[in-house]
Every structure is written in C-alpha cells, then in structure tokens.
Design goal:
Shape: globular
CATH class of the largest domain: Alpha Beta
Number of helices: 9
C-alpha cells in the first residue's frame, strides 16, 4: 500500500525548540534574583512581539531576517518589564542560540525515520539560526532540509513560504504532514493543502482562520502513531 504521507515538515521555534528556555535559564543564573520572578511574562512578551513583527512586516513588505525581529521583540519585552541591563539583553540573545529541543523530540524523530518518513523544517528562522538550533539540540543529520523564509523574503503565513516544501522535496501538498505549535500556522498550512497537526501545548482555543488543522496533539510524542494511521 502506498503511503499517503511522504514527508513530515516541522515548524521550528515552539514546535521542536523550547522558545521559553532562554528566559527561564537566565532567570536561574546567579545574579538574576532581582528580576527572576518576571521571566514567564518576559518570555511570553518576547515571543508574542516576535511573531507580531513577522506578520506586520509581511503585510507591509518590509522584510528583515528573523534574528533582527527576535532582537526587536526582546527589546520591547525588556522595556515592558522595566529591565534596562544591556548585559541581560546579551545573555538572553546568546541563550536563544542554545535552545533545547522538547524532551520527546529526539525519540519522535527517530521513530519517524524508522517508518521511512522524510523529515524537514520549514521556519521563519534564518538559515544560520536554524543550523545553530539543530546543532545545539543535538539533532544534526535528522533533517533532509532546513527550509527558511529567507529564500522567498517574506514570513509565514505567505503562501510562497509553503511553496518551498514542494519545490525542495518534490511532493504534493496532500503528501505532507505539516506540524506546528502555532495555531495560525497550522491553519494556514491546512488552507494551503497540507495535512496539518497542531501541537497545542498550552491548551489554547482554535484560531478562527481560513483553514483548520486536521489533527490536534498535546505534544509530539504521539506523532509517529498518527503518521502510521494516515
């Protein structure tokens, strides 16, 4: 029987890599006592502004790479928290290059590889950021392709970003399981024609958008079983 799904394509940040880890780890380091209680809000604001700036830049046609957007999001979050220490800023940015993968990720990827699945990442991240994230998480050699929006010069959810998958892997949209922790990304991927799985780690409501993810998971541990069932 021919497999319906021929490639599993993952969003990176928040899906494979724990974007809250930078603020959490910095808050646990010596000397952070004065601000440590603020780290959850700082991490949430940083991520929210990072995403908002990608959407606004995409609509405005004012593209810059994701690393600059990440810095701008952090600057907003630090100001909102009343934190002005430049050393803290530099430490948080350095930790962003050392993000860990979620605990279930290595075993999940190994299981998918054993099933014969082709694996790739499709991310807003710049090529250098993606390469660094994969290396820091110890996932070298797991992915056939690290696809970056820098190849098209616009952020998700622009359709040209999703076009990168077929262009690189030579598969139809309905042969792809696209996996994202961002509800808007999973919804846009579904509207594009991918089979999509939304990794809803926070138990958030479904986004009211032009597409609807076919599957909702609490984390990535159940993904190999889902793929086998498709």
């Amino acid at each position: 029987m021919t497999k319906k799904i021929k490639a599993c394509v993952f969003d990176a940040y928040g899906t494979l890599f724990d974007v809250g880890a930078a603020a959490r780890l910095a808050a646990a380091e010596p000397g952070a006592e004065s601000w440590a209680g603020k780290w959850p809000q700082l991490a949430a604001d940083w991520r929210r502004k990072q995403l908002e700036y990608t959407w606004l830049r995409a609509v405005a046609g004012a593209h810059v790479d994701f690393w600059l957007v990440t810095q701008h999001g952090l600057d907003w979050a630090l100001e909102a928290a009343g934190l002005t220490d430049p050393t803290l800023r530099e430490r948080l940015l350095a930790l962003y290059w050392e993000l860990a993968a979620y605990p279930e990720v290595p075993g999940m990827l190994q299981a998918l590889t054993a099933q014969g699945q082709r694996l790739a990442i499709l991310s807003n991240g710049s090529p250098g950021m993606l390469d660094g994230a994969v290396r820091s998480a110890g996932l070298q050699g797991q992915f056939e392709a690290l696809l970056s929006v820098e190849d098209v010069g616009v952020f998700k959810p622009h359709r040209s970003v999703y076009d990168l998958v077929g262009a690189r892997l030579g598969v139809r949209p309905d042969e792809v399981l696209f996996v994202s922790s961002n509800g808007w990304d999973a919804s846009a991927g579904a509207a594009y024609g991918f089979v999509t799985a939304w990794v809803n780690r926070e138990g958030a409501p479904l986004d009211r958008l032009h597409g609807r993810p076919a599957h909702v998971l609490r984390d990535l541990a159940a993904l190999p079983g889902l793929v086998e069932s498709l």
